[in-house]
Amino acid sequence: MKKKTKITKIVKVIKITKAQIKKKIKRLENKAYKLWALYIKLRAGNKCETCPGTKYLNSHHIESYSVFKQLRYDVHNGACACAGCHKYFKTGAWHKGFTFAYNHMTTKRKEDLDYLLTYQFTHSEAEANQPLTEEELVATIKELERLIEELNHDT
Ligand SMILES: [Zn+2]
Q: What backbone phi and psi angles, to 5 degrees, belong to 80?
């Protein structure tokens, strides 16, 4: 009886620890995401990259947010878009087919397009889908903060 109680206690502690780690990771992910989105907009000068729009700006993931977890906070993988260019314009939007994205990336973002293609050729889908570790998230946050600081200094 006593032994069982002890095991139950240990299991409880492990469960709490796991939950705490999960919470910590979630907090880091949220912070990295916010910094990434902020940087994408700042870099674009708070303007849509594909039209003259400056309202309702979104930070768009060029490669899928859910499939390419390794590129989720990678600034090569972001584009600043107004809500229309992001999702809604009938004439074309990031989320409405390949041509729109391809045209923009080949004409305006060639280096980032090459970067993303090279990434795809050198990583499996399973690798790309790995979420960042706690250490990677901490390093990513630091780097994003540095990039934002750099941009703020330049302007
Ligand atoms: Zn736009």
A: -90, 125
Q: How many domains does the chain have?
A: 1
pTM: 0.90
Q: What is the pLDDT of residues 75-131, one digit of tens each?
A: 999 999 999 999 988 888 999 978 899 999 999 999 999 999 999 999 999 999 999
Give how far the C-alpha of residue 102 lies from the chain's centroid of Cα atoms, to the nearest Å: 20
- For residue 134, the enclosing domain spans 2-154
| Ligand 1 center from residue 58 Cα (angstroms) | 10
For residue 65, the CA-to-ligand 1 centroid distance in Å is 20
**Residue for token pair 């901490």:** 138
Cα 64 to ligand 1 centroid, rounded to whole Å: 19
Residue in 30, 55, 43 with CA at minimum distance from that of residue 151: 43
How far separated are the first and last CA of the chain, in Å rounded? 68
**Radius of gyration of the chain from its Cα atoms, rounded to whole angstroms:** 20
What are residue 79's DSSP bridge partners?
60
In whole angstroms, give the CA distance from residue 119 to residue 38: 23
